[in-house]
Amino acid sequence: MFFSGVCGSASADTAAIGSTTMPEMLRRGYPKPFATALLAASGATASIVPPSIDLIIIGVVSGISIGGLFAAGLLPGIFNAIALMVLCYFIGRRLDLPVADPTTWQEKVQILADGGLAVLMPVIILGGILGGVFTPTEASAVAVVYGLVVSLFVYKELAIQELPAVFLEAAKLTGMVMLVLGMASVFGFVLAFERIPHQLAAMIVSYADNWIVFVMAVNIVFLLIGMIMDALPALIILMPILVPAGVALGMEPIHIGIFIAANVTISLFTPPVGVCLFVACGLSNLRIEDVIRPLLPFFVVLVGTLLTISYVPEITLFLPRLLGYVAGG
After folding, report:
1. Alpha carbon of 71 to those of 131, 140, 246, 304, 321: distances in Å?
2. Average pLDDT over residues 241-249
3. Can you give the pTM of this predicted structure?
4. What integer pLDDT is reported at residue 11 of this predicted model?
């Protein structure tokens, strides 16, 4: 959740965090299928946490305020993260997963002091984006430079002679992600060419006569499309049709954008084209079939949070209303 506030891309979030956490989970004895499912589901939630690329796309193609979407995505993103952490707690207890040794308050203070410069990175990135100093794309370059300087000259955990290996590993991870995205985009083009998403959207508009039915129909369609189509073309095709229909039924556009973004979080780890699932399986060297069973509890929990976000608009609209993006507060 915190890293996606810096990165904005769910697949890159999964690759970056997974390259560090996957070896550590396996070293501590976590079952490899569970560790892979955990990484895929957690990385997918990045698509709703600002400054998410998907939120920017939703804002651009549907004319919704991107600042309003960023404000609206924060509480649902935290809600998703808490739900996943509670699930992991109970799974961890059931599997009797190893825990770290208890730390004293003095040790905690020392750890926070030692990691102060690392924790400062999200503050710099988010502060720069929200303050208009640089764009989210430029923020990624700032993050790389900042991390390189701190690692080389402050913590001294990285030596200059190790840089070629770091660059090679980054290229391998990037190549893996881009290959998956490329094939998903090709398949998305085929579906778009056949006008399948457009026909589904037209069917929703024709039969949904109130916002409750509309939300349920949109959720079902996105869950189905998300299993066979990449999120980007689906958003570009469907949002201009669905947002005006939802507004006509009395819904707030920002709420429509966020509950659709919450749908995207699920599509990113559902087979057969879930990008985050492919990335996580690539890091653990597992087949997708081996991960489906441990992935089911994460799917059920996130469907539950999706329905809550969809039918309790105040979770989404509280912050935008407070900041003046939505009238009435």
Report:
1. 14, 20, 20, 22, 9
2. 82
3. 0.75
4. 75
Tokens 């958003």 — which residue?
235
- Report how far residue 230's alpha carbon sits from residue 224's, in angstroms, rounded to the nearest whole number: 11
- Token digits of residue 319: 């912050």
| Tokens at 57, concatenated | 């796309």
pLDDT digits (tens, 9 = 90+) for 9-57: 777 778 878 888 888 888 888 899 999 999 988 888 877 888 777 888 8
Q: What's the rounded Cα separation, in Å, for the pair 203 and 196?
A: 11
Cα separations (Å) of 247 from 57, 242, 244, 257? Answer: 19, 9, 5, 11
Of 221, 227, 233, residue with least CA distance to 277: 227
Cβ proximity of 8 and 262 under 8 Å: no
**Cβ neighbours of residue 283 under 8 Å, at least 6 residues apart?**
15, 18, 19, 22, 36, 39
d(CA 117, CA 146) in angstroms, rounded, equals 10
Q: State the average pLDDT for the chain.
A: 81
Asked if 40 and 280 count as a contact pair (C-beta separation under 8 A), the reply is yes
**305-308 contacts: CB < 8 A, separation 24 or more?**
305/76, 305/79, 305/80, 305/83, 305/262, 306/219, 306/259, 306/262, 306/263, 306/265, 306/266, 307/219, 308/79
For residue 90, is pLDDT > 90?
yes
CA atoms within 13 A on the CB side of 320: 27
Q: How far apart are the first and last CA of the chain?
A: 28
Distances (CA, A) of 4 to 1, 49, 154: 5, 6, 24
Give one DSSP letter per residue of 183-212, joined into a string.
Answer: HHHHHHHHHHHTTHHHHHHHHHHHH--SHH
Q: Give, to the nearest 10 degrees, the angle between helix 253-267 and helix 313-322.
A: 120
Angle formed at CA 157 by CA 153 and CA 158, multiple of 5 degrees? 75
Query: Which helix H or strand E contains 15, and what residues bound it?
Result: helix 10-27
Rounded to whole angstroms, how far apart are CA atoms 266 and 222?
A: 9
Query: Each residue of 55-67: b (16+ CB within 10 Å) or e?
Result: bbbbbebbebbbe
